[in-house]
Amino acid sequence: MTGVQTCALPISGEIIESETSANYIKTQLEAAKDITQINVYINSYGGEVKEGLGIYNLLKRNAAQKTVYIDGFACSVASVIAMAGDKVVMGTNTLMMIHHAAMGCYGNAEELRKSANDVEVIDSASCSSYLAKAGDKLTAETLKQLLDGQTWLNAEQCLQYGLCDEITGKEDTTIAAAKQRFKTAMKFEIEQHEPTLKVPPELIVQKTNAERLMMIFTNKNSEV
Q1: CA distance 208 to 214
Q2: What's 137's DSSP letter?
Q3: 91 exposed, middle or buried (CB, 10 Å; 0-12, 13-18, 19+)?
Q4: Which residues are CB-contacts of 191 (< 8 A; sequence separation ≥ 6)?
Q5: How far apart, in whole angstroms, are the C-alpha atoms of residue 129 and residue 56?
Q6: Which tens digit of pLDDT belongs to each residue from 40-97?
Q7: Of 23, 94, 28, the residue nearest 82 (C-alpha)
Q8: Closest Cα to residue 44, out of 9, 82, 10?
Q9: 88, exposed or middle or buried, with CB in 10 Å at 0-12, 13-18, 19+?
Q10: How confident is the model over 152-209, as pLDDT tens digits?
Q11: How far is residue 35's CA from residue 59's CA, in Å, rounded to a whole number?
Q12: 136, 20, 158, 36: which is closest to 89 by C-alpha?
């Protein structure tokens, strides 16, 4: 979902804009203008925090209803983008991975300490989106534990923590239970209003006589 803002073609040196950059998404949203529904499809290992936060805020500012579909993976900052959805939909076999922001650094002790402080600020900014989406389903303490563990979350766990709103392909247990109750009730009604089928007595006698005749015939044959 997220990527660098621009890249260069290896032969011509032509600069092209990534279709997963914040600037590209901004251009598309501006061109769409009065749209009322935005569908976002995510299957990504993540990318640059700068681009991801830009896309997140572009979506959040847009007045349209936003539905995010996680089609495979929503990892790292791609999961942050997902939090911009008014409705986040996951498949039963899809995954989300969340972790603290990371960066590379080089320098003396003071520069390294500053880099550590900087990445904590960046991390706080990006991860606040999880709490904003989850509401009271996820505490800051639990979120920290999940981020510390670089945690992979399945759809059920995301639903539990408020990071998604719906799981597609999952049978509604309430509906299934209602169907079973209906079948049981219908069976009971049928049994109450329709008498149990029984073989008429005269047919039972006929059957018994037939059996007797068969026995006589068998005995005669055995005597011969």
Answers
A1: 10
A2: G
A3: middle
A4: none
A5: 9
A6: 999 999 988 889 999 999 999 999 999 999 999 999 999 999 999 999 999 999 999 9
A7: 94
A8: 82
A9: buried
A10: 999 999 999 999 999 998 765 556 666 677 777 766 666 666 655 565 665 555 555 6
A11: 12
A12: 158
Cα angle vertex 17, ends 16, 23, to 5°? 160
In whole angstroms, give the CA distance from residue 145 to residue 141.
7
Q: Which two tokens stand for residue 131?
A: 């709490």
- For the chain, the residue count is 224
Range list of β-strands (E), the chain: 6-8, 15-17, 37-44, 65-75, 87-91, 95-98, 151-154, 166-168
- How far is the C-alpha of 81 from the C-alpha of 75, rounded, in Å? 10
Asked if residues 41 and 81 have their Cβ atoms less than 8 Å apart, the reply is no
> For residue 56, how many other CB atoms are within 10 A of its CB?
21
One-letter amino acid identity for 164? C
Whole-Å CA distances, 193 to 60, 184, 185, 187, 197: 60, 15, 12, 10, 12
CA 192, CA 214: separation in Å to the nearest integer? 39
Q: What is d(CA 42, CA 71) in angstroms, rounded to the nearest whole number?
A: 6
